[in-house]
């Protein structure tokens, strides 16, 4: 590490200006950054003093300030009640308590990693992200922050993550599973959302992570389910499609396990939802 200067900006404008400096690196909660700081970085721009630690809602969205931590999300009353409490439950599954106290939701989203939870939650609810750059502020679909020529923490800052309240009455399911606790290769994490209308599927999201940097949506299974009643045959076919989706990404013994587990979790979720109705 070759850090020579450390800044604690109090405004977004100041922070963005500092990230434009040569050999600077933006650090949110530091749980990711300190072990991944580029060797040429000389300036650390710390985000801990930025006014982004809030969690609130307006008429359309639940809004997570990018500086809110997973511990904040785990204990927040809104996160415990909206969306069936799935945000708080997912936050509690984020690593250890020490990491949850440090890791920010914005940082978790900014650095795509197979085991990060925020991209999975965003994928499940088609979340949007508010970003700030030198050209101003705009709101984009969560996955649009990846893969372009602009980089989070350098060319733009994530300021808010927006979860649409249109999902608030859906049935949710979150689970993080591994074959054995210490086996990263066998991990799979799921977040499902389901809206029923007169026992038929009106809207559904089947999102899977711990597979690759960006979560997988089982779009063929979702398409198969729309408009259908959740009978045993429909559920079985959807579960098979989810398993096939996983195997289409990669093959191998651990992936066969993940594919089978993906199908079983899908079947469990849909069967439980059908019985509840």
Helix-strand layout with pairing:
Elements: E1 5-7, H1 12-19, E2 24-27, E3 43-46, E4 55-57, E5 61-65, H2 70-75, H3 77-81, H4 86-92, H5 97-102, H6 105-110, H7 118-125, E6 128-133, E7 136-141, E8 156-164, E9 171-177, E10 188-197, E11 200-209, E12 216-217, H8 219-225, H9 232-249, H10 253-276
Parallel strand pairs: 1-3, 2-3
Antiparallel strand pairs: 4-5, 5-8, 6-7, 6-8, 9-10, 10-11, 11-12
Helix pairs in contact: 8-9, 9-10
Q: What are its keywords?
A:
alpha+beta, Uridine Diphospho-n-acetylenolpyruvylglucosamine Reductase, domain 3, Enolase-like, domain 1, five-stranded antiparallel sheet, globular
Textual characterization of the structure:
By secondary structure, the protein is of the alpha+beta class. Helices cover 34% and strands 25% of the residues. The protein contains ten helices and twelve strands. Strands 4-5-8-6-7 form a five-stranded antiparallel β-sheet. Helix 8 (219-225) runs antiparallel to helix 9 (232-249) and helix 9 (232-249) runs antiparallel to helix 10 (253-276). It is globular. The relative contact order is 0.11.
Oligomeric state as shown: single chain
Number of helical segments with 4 or more residues: 10
User: How many structural domains does the protein architecture include?
Assistant: 3
Mean pLDDT: 92
In CATH's first tier, which class of the largest domain applies?
A: Alpha Beta
User: Which structural category do the helix and sheet elements fall into?
Assistant: alpha+beta
Shape: globular
Instruction: Report the CATH architecture of the largest domain.
Output: 2-Layer Sandwich
Distance between the termini: 57 Å
Strand order of the largest sheet: 4-5-8-6-7
- The helix fraction, in percent, is 25-40%
H and E string = EHEEEEHHHHHHEEEEEEEHHH
- The biggest beta sheet, please? 5 strands, antiparallel
Task: Give the total of beta strands.
Answer: 12
Predict the CATH topology of the largest domain. Uridine Diphospho-n-acetylenolpyruvylglucosamine Reductase, domain 3
Percent in strands: 15-25%
Radius of gyration: 20 Å
Residue stretches low in confidence (pLDDT < 50, at least 5 long) are none
């Amino acid at each position: 590490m070759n850090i020579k200067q450390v800044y604690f900006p109090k405004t977004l404008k100041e922070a963005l200006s500092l990230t434009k400096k040569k050999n600077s690196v933006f650090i949110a909660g530091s749980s990711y950054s300190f072990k991944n700081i580029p060797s040429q970085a000389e300036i650390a721009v710390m985000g801990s003093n930025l006014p982004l630690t809030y969690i609130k809602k307006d008429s359309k969205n639940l809004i997570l300030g990018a500086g809110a931590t997973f511990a904040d999300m785990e204990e927040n009353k809104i996160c415990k009640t909206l969306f069936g409490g799935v945000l708080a439950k997912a936050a509690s599954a984020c690593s250890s308590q020490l990491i949850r106290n440090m890791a920010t939701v914005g940082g978790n989203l900014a650095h795509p990693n197979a085991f990060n939870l925020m991209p999975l939650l965003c994928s499940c609810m088609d979340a949007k992200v508010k970003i700030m750059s030198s050209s101003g502020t705009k709101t984009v679909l969560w996955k649009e922050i990846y893969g372009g020529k602009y980089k989070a923490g350098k060319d733009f800052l994530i300021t808010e993550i927006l979860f649409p309240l249109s999902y608030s009455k859906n049935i949710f399911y979150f689970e993080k599973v591994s074959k054995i606790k210490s086996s990263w290769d066998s991990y799979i994490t799921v977040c499902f959302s389901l809206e029923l209308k007169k026992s038929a599927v009106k809207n559904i999201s089947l999102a899977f992570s711990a597979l690759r940097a960006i979560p997988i949506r089982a779009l063929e299974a979702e398409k198969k389910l729309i408009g259908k009643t959740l009978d045993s045959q429909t559920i079985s076919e959807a579960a098979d499609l989810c398993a096939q989706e996983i195997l289409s990404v990669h093959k191998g013994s651990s992936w066969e396990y993940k594919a089978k587990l993906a199908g079983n979790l899908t079947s469990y979720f849909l069967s439980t939802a059908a019985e509840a109705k």
